[in-house]
Amino acid sequence: MEQGTAAVVVGVDGSEQSVEALRWAARIAPALGASLRVVAAWDYPPEYAGYVPLGSDNFDEITRKRVDTAIQQAFGEDVPEGLTTTVEFGHPSKVLVRESEDAVMLVVGRRGHGGFRGLLLGSVSAACVSHASCPVLVIHEDGTAATS
């Protein structure tokens, strides 16, 4: 596999687990001959349904800033060569599963900004494990990894 023809996709939401997922993905990508593609998704919060006119919010901008901050926290000035970022509108699990279709691996945090703290897996990571088209690496809160 040539560098750049395949990608390790990493889901980022700005949480500590997603920053750690970035670090893991950056270590794994070279071994797989792959580039690193950082993917973030945003959706309208349920309480906004019907109340916010489309295009009148700044969720896309907030998400892009979270991605930039997470990349800075993960790598400082040593950003991996060839790293690309994508920010999409849509439910995070659906976006990440779609992005997994041409990936060699998907890396996600166990739980991000949402969800209930006691869950073994967050809803996004569980959906990725169940539906991704490639192997999935789930990073736990303590920085350990589990594969599926």
From TrEMBL:
InterPro entries: Rossmann-like_a/b/a_fold, Universal_stress_UspA, UspA. Residues 8-140 form the UspA domain. It comes from the Bacteria. Gene3D superfamilies: HUPs. Belongs to the universal stress protein A family. This is Universal stress protein. It comes from Kocuria sediminis. The lineage of its organism: Bacteria, Bacillati, Actinomycetota, Actinomycetes, Micrococcales.
